[in-house]
Amino acid sequence: MTTPATEPPLDTGAYQALFDASPKTTKVVTLANLTRVGARPPLGQYIALLWARRNFLWRDARARVGSNSRESVLGKLWLVLEPVINGLTYYLIFGVIMGASRGVTNFVGYLVIGVFLFQFTTKCTTGGTRAVTSNTNMIRAFTFPRAALPIAVVLRELLSYLWALAALAALIYLLPEQETFTWRVALVPVVLVLQVMFTLGLALFLARWTVAIRDLATIVPLVSRIWLYASCVFFSFDTLEDRGLPPIYGTVMQYNPMFQVLDMVRDCVLYATIPDLTSWLILGGWAVGMLVIGFVSFWRAEESYGR
């Protein structure tokens, strides 16, 4: 009968000698480089994070515009047909039935410029109210600068807007009363850039405050409709005095940013004139001011989104 083998006794002295011979190192753990999850980064870093995602935002906008058009039979034709149909409807109501075309040179061009350009801002502001509230699950699941959501809305509408602008140019320069192409048209892109800046700032501002006041999602479309009628989309600014309105209405109208956008584009395209300096200053002030206010207010509430 064999006895089980037993392990030799542990030589603790050898292990202690080995431990004493090993070099002693001390590591200091600091929390200085750690940040709280979901914390709002500084404004400069926030802008850098958005800029780093610019390619994704642009490709995502292109993909969404393409996917939306593929779901319908006419596809991207709807990007052109929708504003054309709206313009035709407003022409029949205001131009033919209500006689708003009296005293307006090239009322068709006057009307389609108003309808096409105002529709871009309306869609961006309406989409901006839902940009954050409709993506709550994604905000809770991923860490990214939340301003990317309203920016993505404006990018998608901008891509659709380019198709509408091509249709607008065709209507103005091919349909009766045809306009003469002049060098003043080169000023139109500058006006449109200011419009996009203003619209982006407004979309950011509305996206931020709709999170706090959910009723804004319902109120904004109603206010946009009033804004549409107050921006001289269907009638001429010069006819306000003929309608017996007090001069204060004309003053308020001139400080309306969308009125300035429409009026300046009409000057360049329809009347071959350069918008005056006052118009540039008013629209430029609205564009820069609204973009700064909208972006900063959205950034300041960064930590509240998704709660």
UniProtKB/TrEMBL annotation:
It holds the Pfam family ABC2_membrane. It comes from the Bacteria. Signal peptide: none annotated. Residues 74-301 form the ABC transmembrane type-2 domain. It is a multi-pass membrane protein. Keywords: Cell inner membrane, Cell membrane, Membrane, Transmembrane, Transmembrane helix, Transport. Its main location: membrane. The chain crosses the membrane at residues 77-101, 107-126, 147-175, 181-207, 219-237, 280-299. The keyword Aminoacyl-tRNA synthetase does not apply. It is found in: Cell inner membrane; Cell membrane. Belongs to the ABC-2 integral membrane protein family. This is Transport permease protein.
